[in-house]
Amino acid sequence: MTPDLENTAPRTAVQRTTKQREAVREALADTEGFVSAQALHSQLQRAGSTVGLATVYRALGTLAAAGDADTLQSPEGEALYRACSTGHHHHLICRNCGLTVEISADSVESWAQQVAAEHGFTRAAHVVDVFGLCAECSADGRRPVE
Amino acid sequence: MTPDLENTAPRTAVQRTTKQREAVREALADTEGFVSAQALHSQLQRAGSTVGLATVYRALGTLAAAGDADTLQSPEGEALYRACSTGHHHHLICRNCGLTVEISADSVESWAQQVAAEHGFTRAAHVVDVFGLCAECSADGRRPVE
DNA sequence: GTTCTAAATGAGAACGATTGTCAATCTCAC
DNA sequence: GTGAGATTGACAATCGTTCTCATTTAGAAC
Description:
The structure is a homodimer of 146-residue chains. By secondary structure, chain A is of the alpha+beta class. Chain A has 2 domains: 77 residues, Winged helix-like DNA-binding domain superfamily/Winged helix DNA-binding domain (Arc Repressor Mutant, subunit A); 58 residues, Ferric-uptake regulator, C-terminal dimerisarion domain (Dna Ligase, domain 1). Helix content of chain A is 40%, strand content 23%. Chain A contains 6 helices and 6 strands. In chain A, the strands form 2 sheets. A 3-stranded antiparallel β-sheet of chain A has the order 1-3-2. In chain A, strand 2 and strand 3 form a beta hairpin. In chain A, helix 2 crosses helix 4 and helix 3 packs across helix 4. Chain A is flat and about 50 Å long. The N and C termini of chain A lie far apart (62 Å). The N terminus and C terminus of chain A are likely disordered. The interface between A and B is medium-sized, with 35 and 35 residues. Chain A binds a DNA duplex (30 and 30 nucleotides) through helix 2 and helix 4.
C-alpha cells in the first residue's frame, strides 16, 4: 500500500520511536549548555532509566545527524552535545564554568562560504566557537586552571 | 647552596634541548598541513628515529604550549598539530585529501572579540576552521567517505 | 675532562571516550 | 495477535592519549 512512499523516503530505513531515544532527547532538552554523552548517560541512570551507554551514543548520533542536536569537540577532545532547535548557530563558552551563550553570526557564515568558494572548496562546513571567561568568572579574579 | 637562586627561577624548571624534541620540531616543520601525533611518530620512525610515541606527544604539547605549534581537534576528535610561525590564522581543510590552506580573517578576529566583549567575556580565544572538499576532490565527483 | 643532579626518554601499562558485536527485546504494520 | 526487523544493553574491542618508572642524558659545577 502507498507504494509511492518508497519514493519519498527510499534510503532511510524505518526509524522507530523508542522510550530510550525519547529519554535521551528529553534529557538533552532539559539540559542547559553542552553535555558529554557520558554525563547524559549517568544523568539518565540517576533518573532511574536503564539506558545503556552505547544507546546514548547511538541516540545522540542520530539526533545530531538529524540536525536536532548540536555537537562540538571540547578542547579535551570529548564530544559535547546540545539540544538545538534554532537552526545553525555558534557558541560562546566559558572555559571555567561552562556557561554557554548561543550566538548567531551571519557575517561569519557568509565569510566562510566566500573563503571556501575562493579556494574552490565545495560542501563547506565550518567550526566557529569562542572560548573565554564569562563576566562572573572574570570577576572572580581566579586564574583558570590551565 | 646558593639559596638565593630560588628567587631567580622559582617556577619554570629548566628545559633541556634534546635530539628527540628537535627531531619532532623538524618533522613538524617539514610537514605541510596538519598531522596527528601518531602520524608524526610513524613518520619519524620511518626516517630511522627511535623516538617513542609518548615523547612525540610530550614534544608536541610543549611546542603547542610555547606557541610554536598550532593545534586543533579534527571532527573525529583527534588532535592535529602544525608548525606555526606566522602568528594567528585559521584553516581551510579538505576533508577528503587533507589539503590545508591557511586563511587569515581579520573580520572574524574582530567579530570574535566583539561578541565576547558584548557578553562580558574576557580572555577570549576562538576556534574557526572551515572544512570542505577542495577543488580537485570536488571535481573527482566522488562522494566523501562519510 | 669528570662528576653530579634533575630533566627527558622509551616501553608499555593504564586510561577514558567511543564503536562494534550479538543475542534478546520491543515496535509497528499487518 | 503475529512476525519481521529495527533497537537495545552488556561487554569486548579499538583508538588516541597520558601515566609510570627504570634508564639515559643535558648541562652546570668542579
